[in-house]
Amino acid sequence: MTRDEAQPSRDRHFRRLSQASPLLADLSQADVLLMIPEENEFRVVSHVRPMNARTVYPIDQAGGSFPMRNRPLATRAFNNGEIVDGGIWLERRSRWIRTLAVPINIDGEIVGVLAREFSPSIEVMPGDLELLSFATFRRFAAMIAAGSYPFRVETRRHDHPPRVGDGILLFDRAGRLEYASPNALTVLRQVGEIHVNMGQRFGDMDIDAPGFRQAYANGLEYTDEIDLGSGVLSTLCIPLLTRDVVTGAIVLVRNITELRQRDRLLMTKDATIAEIHHRVKNSLQTASSLLQLQSRRVDSEDARAALAESARRIRSIGIVHELLSHRTDDEVQFGEILSTLTTMIRDSLVDPVHPVRFEINADSAILPSKLTTPLALVASELVQNVIDHSNGTMVEVTMRVDPDAVVLHVSDDGIGFPDDFNIEDSASLGLVIVRSMVESELSGSMVIGSNERLGGSQVSVRVPLFDETRRRMESLRGTMTM
Predict the structure, then answer these.
(1) What is residue 456's DSSP assignment?
(2) Average pLDDT rounded to a whole number, residues 198-226
(3) Residue 399: which H helix or E strand, with range?
(4) CA-CA distance, 361 to 371, in Å (whole number)?
(5) pTM here?
(6) What's the CA gap between 251 and 42, in Å, rounded?
(7) Least CB-packed of 19, 122, 185, 187 within 10 Å?
(8) Comparing C-alpha atoms, which of 374, 386, 385, 380 is closest to residue 442?
(9) pLDDT confidence of residue 482
């Protein structure tokens, strides 16, 4: 296998090792750094601090580098493929740090070094938990040096994985309990009044955890979420290997009863919000239908047209609530709304004899709901205005999100606005509504002009994003990418 062919495998290995680093940092109660050699330096690709001990490095070291001459233990581990334990002197901090350098083995080739580093203190005497945790870390270190950890096959990961501080159970090669941390005993008592004895098997604790059995059978880590009636237990079972043979397992446990109760409350709240949107949509449809019925009973063409426009505006708002009623949150991608709005306008206003082509170009952004409804109405009014007055064959709607504003353009290839056009003298109620909503409700601005590329008119709307709105959009973007 060439170097280029091996690179994706190495990237996956480092990614999985980086994902496992929080566990390793907590077990060793020290900083864990993943380093790869580059000429005469080690480049740090990952740095994880422990949750249960002080860090050696207040500043994140990821992306930085160390000269190899300043990391002799890591250099020996990389060159010899052996775990090296010792201490190094940090000139900049004027103190010793204890280091365990572990060669990272991928398919028989040493490609980097995992360094466990901490500042020793004679004032702190380790207890049973600390000694057992570090002994377990040494077993993981041996697996990393042998190339058997992290595991080559990824299993399903839990959305609330337990960490070392939540609780540790250590089992031997036969699946019998060797050690249970005080926090683990507390967690088991909280979720189901479970009392454990040394030498007991996991299945004998009245905990049905198929992941525990699979970890021993397949040599892979597994997660379980177990509903014990009085509580919900999250478990992460990681087998410990020696020469690819399972010689024990570490099980992390966490009480997630409160988290699941909150999830159920949120689901109830989401269902309630969706039902409200659905009922609002139905009410708006009823109001639109009543206006349409009323329009059939009036003789004046102007009155009939005004009622029809009012009904369409109500339907535009109803479309937003229709989309929101099918979501579990209160947000929706604005491009989806634009597509639905233009379809509605095309079906109701465009003459099949003179078809109009719509082109929608929208950033894949989720806007807060307080912007969605007024912007949807603005877009609907502008598109209808184009259909009514431009006599063109194409309408282009674009929406982009800048760092400080949302910008909406509606352009066409029609006759355009007259040179002496003045919105104050215009008979178009739609443009007046748009300007009023943009300026008063959205604190934005509207510019009317021409589109040189299409040769027709263009109306541009710019809505500023204030700090609160930006933060909300950032949180929504983060939620969508998790």
Answers:
(1) S
(2) 88
(3) strand 394-401
(4) 18
(5) 0.60
(6) 33
(7) 122
(8) 374
(9) 39
Residue of 448, 304, 328, 321 whose CA lies nearest to 377: 321
Give Cα 128 to chain centroid, integer Å. 38
pLDDT at 328 over 60: no
Options 3.30.450.20, 3.40.190.10, 3.20.20.140, 3.10.129.10; CATH of 164-255: 3.30.450.20
CA–CA distance from 271 to each of 264, 266, 274, 367 (Å)? 11, 8, 5, 21
Residues 6 or more apart whose Cβ sits within 8 Å of residue 240: 136, 139, 140, 143, 246, 247, 248, 249, 250
- Asked whether this chain's domains 3-146 and 164-255 adopt the same fold, the reply is yes
The DSSP secondary-structure symbol of 45 reads E
Contact partners, residue 8, CB within 8 Å, separation at least 6: none
Residues in the chain: 482
CATH superfamily, domain 332-482, is: Histidine kinase-like ATPase, C-terminal domain (3.30.565.10)
The two tokens of residue 453 are: 């590329």
Closest listed residue to residue 45, CA positions, set 21, 22, 64: 64
